[in-house]
Design goal:
Strand content: under 5%
Distance between the termini: 80 Å
Bound molecules: heme C
Structural class: mainly alpha
Number of domains: 2
Number of helices: 5
CATH architecture of the largest domain: Up-down Bundle
Largest sheet: none
Shape: elongated
């Protein structure tokens, strides 16, 4: 037993070292292919397209009285606008994004009170906000109120 144990330990350690070497080789291969992969940088247009989807969903959730879903959709919009501001902070086009935040707050206020009328009018104000910015930056994109 006295001899077997150190022997076993030695065998295990050798196996581990070999294992580590294989691991490192795998890591190097993955890192190498990541370095060569083309980089897809998400841009403002990508974020805006997904904002539009949630803008749509928010409307239908609200007018159908699904307030829980409406709040979730509102948060999706907020999160994306925040991301747009963060990743495109050098663009003058995103400088006006904070103007939408009070409009989003009014929608939240209506959602929390399950107020369909308030929801519809604050939603229209949000849509106007989308279009005002698009006009200001000479974008031809028109966001309809669904
Ligand atoms: C602060 C300015 C601003 C606000 C507010 C804004 N947008 Fe935009 N939006 C832009 C700009 C700038 C573009 C053009 C992006 C590009 O093509 O690089 C754009 C483009 C878009 C596009 C076209 C994306 C594409 O694939 O070309 C959609 C859809 C859109 N916005 C939806 C919305 C919606 C919905 C809202 C309101 C919830 C909104 N936007 C609010 C600035 C804004």
């Amino acid at each position: 037993m006295k001899i077997v144990f150190p022997l076993l330990l030695a065998v295990m350690l050798t196996a581990c070292t070999q294992h580590d070497a294989v691991h490192q080789e795998n890591i190097n291969t993955v890192a190498d292919s990541l370095n060569r992969a083309p980089i897809y940088k998400i841009g403002l247009a990508d974020i805006m397209s997904s904002v539009l989807v949630h803008h749509h969903n928010l409307w239908f959730a609200g007018v159908n009285g699904d307030w829980k879903l409406a709040e979730k959709e509102l948060n999706e919009i907020k999160g994306r606008l925040n991301t747009a501001q963060t990743i495109e902070d050098k663009k003058k086009e995103t400088a006006a994004i904070p103007l939408l935040y009070p409009k989003l707050d009014s929608i939240l206020y209506a959602i929390q009170r399950k107020n369909t009328k308030g929801f519809k009018s604050s939603f229209q104000s949000l849509t106007n906000g989308c279009n005002s910015c698009h006009q200001a930056v000479n974008s031809k994109i028109f966001v309809p109120n669904p």
